[in-house]
Design goal:
The protein contains 10 helices and 14 strands. The longest helix is centred in the middle third of the chain and has 25 residues. By secondary structure, the chain is an alpha/beta fold. β6 and β7 form a beta hairpin. α3 crosses α5, α4 packs across α5 and α7 packs parallel to α9. Bound molecules: adenosine-5'-diphosphate (ADP) and magnesium ion. Adenosine-5'-diphosphate binds next to loops.
Length: 297
């Protein structure tokens, strides 16, 4: 690769990769990228560190990343320790008051602080928030309210984030928010990320999950949709190709795009550095959804 005997191929490649990232760094500097953090990337130690480093790198080159997270397996572990049986309905947790206490303690008290600490250890300046801080997110009951303290986003006021972002802090937001009466609700983290991206007019919404992206055949990674327009994505939901936990993901991407977010990405968090691969390469590795369909190279 290198024609100069004094430069190793590894060094030449490293510099080539950095140089190729320049147009992306220039394009995204000063823009906001909202990342929903979850799945294996939250559980496996090597992946956690890779995600934290990617986020720190984004912040370092002038992109303004924000993290929204759910609870991962920790909520069930703590419910188990406290002998509270987890219940799910259509992939959504049924949440009574006792469960909500645990959800809030685990998400806001523990998971959020672990993420903040992990990010700060690799040199980011992360700050933890939940939906209640600065009135960031207001909740209303999800659907007909039969899921208990499961919420939907009633409104977002991102003003608390502006001074943090301008000062170079990396906000880490747990998906718990109060309703009008101050009762904490657990909201799907994908949904919070999407609404936040819309409120911030973010450049990108990136959802890290444990599949390669949106697949035509759920068991076949080769059937990945690399790019979807809004109407194609809506059709996949209507046809049942997108189902289960992929439905709120795809729906929140569609809503974010309809409200002015430039692109939404569903990305495999099991692949180390998938975040950088998606943001800083033409081809990306997951599914990119955008308002104006363009083929990815
Ligand atoms: P997360 O924990 O990251 O929110 P979820 O389990 O809620 O992930 O949602 C992702 C799941 O959605 C996948 O594991 C898969 O089982 C399911 N799914 C349904 N339809 C599709 C599809 N068309 N392509 C990929 N995954 C799909
Ligand atoms: Mg989910």
């Amino acid at each position: 690769m290198s024609s100069d005997p004094l430069i190793s191929d590894a060094d030449a490649q490293r510099v080539a990769v950095l140089s190729e990232a320049l147009p992306y760094i220039q394009r995204f500097a000063g823009r906001r990228v909202v990342v929903k953090y979850g799945g294996a990337a939250m559980v496996r130690e090597d992946l956690r560190e890779a995600v934290f480093r990617d986020l720190a790198l984004l912040a370092c080159v002038g992109v303004q990343p924000l993290v929204v997270h759910g609870g991962g397996p920790e909520i069930n572990q703590w419910l188990g320790k406290l002998a509270i049986e987890p219940r799910f309905h259509d992939g959504l947790r049924v949440t009574d008051a006792a469960t909500m206490d645990v959800v809030e303690m685990v998400l806001v008290g523990r998971v959020n602080k672990q993420i903040v600490t992990g990010l700060n250890q690799v040199g980011a300046r992360a700050v933890g928030l939940s939906g209640c801080d600065g009135g960031l997110v207001r909740a209303r009951p999800f659907g007909d309210g039969s899921l208990g303290l499961v919420g939907d986003v009633a409104g977002v006021d991102p003003s608390v984030l502006e001074p943090l972002l301008e000062a170079g802090y990396l906000p880490v937001i747990s998906s718990v928010a109060p309703d009008g009466e101050g009762r904490a609700h657990n909201i799907n983290a994908d949904t919070v990320a999407g609404e936040l991206a819309a409120a911030l007019q973010a450049e990108k919404l990136v959802l890290l999950t444990d599949t390669p992206g949106i697949l035509r055949e759920r068991q076949d990674p080769a059937s990945l949709f690399r790019h979807l327009g809004l109407s194609e994505a809506r059709q996949l939901i209507a046809d049942g190709v997108v189902a289960g936990g992929m439905t709120p993901k795809t729906e929140c991407c569609i809503r974010a795009l309809a409200q002015g977010v430039r692109a939404a990405h569903i990305v495999d968090g099991r692949v180390p550095h998938s975040l950088l691969l998606e943001v800083f390469t033409d081809g990306g590795i997951g599914t990119m959804l955008s308002g104006s369909p363009q083929p990815r190279s």
